[in-house]
Amino acid sequence: MDIVELAGTWDIADPADPPRLVGTVKGPIAGPFNAVFCDKLVENIFPE
Q1: Of 22, 18, 20, residue with least CA distance to 4
Q2: Angle at CA 24, nearest 5°, toward 3 and 36?
Q3: Which residues pair with 34 in a beta bridge?
Q4: What is the pTM of this model?
Q5: Contact 5, 22 (CB under 8 A)
Q6: Phi and psi of 44, rounded to 5°?
Q7: Rounded to an integer, what distance in angstroms lies between the CA atom of residue 41 and that of residue 21?
């Protein structure tokens, strides 16, 4: 997996332009991806 860009607005909450990771996946399942960052997952899955 290669992340090639941090897209969207990362500094403030903007529903029209959410923070996203843009990149490509390599291997048997390959292609581009555009993943929206979800702060709820960080709180629930990765507690600090």
Answers
A1: 22
A2: 65
A3: 22
A4: 0.63
A5: yes
A6: -90, -35
A7: 15
